[in-house]
Amino acid sequence: MSRSVAAFTLALALAACGNRVDLRPAAGESLPPAPLGRADAPTAEELLTRTPQQAPKRSVELRTRSEEREDDPFDLPPPDG
Hints:
Shape: flat
Number of helices: 2
Radius of gyration: 26 Å
Order of helices and strands: HH
C-alpha cells in the first residue's frame, strides 16, 4: 500500500514539473488568421493576454462592519396554492 502511494506521489511530482517555454503552434499548424479589420495576425502572447472585459476588476466594496439590511420590496412570500 505505501509503495503504491509513494509511486503515485512520485508520478504526480514529475507530472507537475514540466518545462515552461514559449507557446508555439504544433508542427504543421499556424496561428489563427487576423481578425476582420486588422492588418496583421496577433501573436501568441497577444492571444493569451486577457482584456479587462474578459477579466473584470472587482468593484464590490467590502463591508467593514455589520449593518442592518434595508427593506427589500421584492422579498415576497411564496404564493399559496
